[in-house]
Design goal:
About 0% of the residues lie in helices and about 80% in strands. The protein is mostly beta strands and about 90 residues long. The protein has one domain.
Length: about 90
């Protein structure tokens, strides 16, 4: 589930978003496999620059908060960060 808020400015569009969901992680190691199911809360913002009425380019930055705990020796993983380039075509 994701909520997006669109803000149009002259020449570009800003879209902050927040979500909530479940994620499953499976960690395979030579000494054994561990897995965990956790919540995920993606927080991010996208910026789009229109090239034509139906075509735009942009980028997104996202931090995904999670509560993975793979046990002793591996520990917890509480966030992932990503930066993505985007091309959007609207038919």
């Amino acid at each position: 589930m994701t909520a997006r808020f669109h803000f149009d400015f002259e020449g570009f569009e800003v879209v902050p978003y927040v979500g909530l969901g479940l994620v499953y992680g499976d960690l395979d190691r030579p000494l054994g496999s561990r897995d965990d199911t956790s919540y995920i809360i993606p927080l991010g913002v996208s910026v789009d620059f229109p090239l034509q009425p139906k075509l735009s380019v942009g980028f997104s930055v996202q931090v995904a908060l999670t509560g993975f705990d793979f046990g002793p020796g591996i520990g917890e993983d509480s966030s992932q960060t990503s930066v993505m380039a985007t091309v959007r075509y609207r038919p």
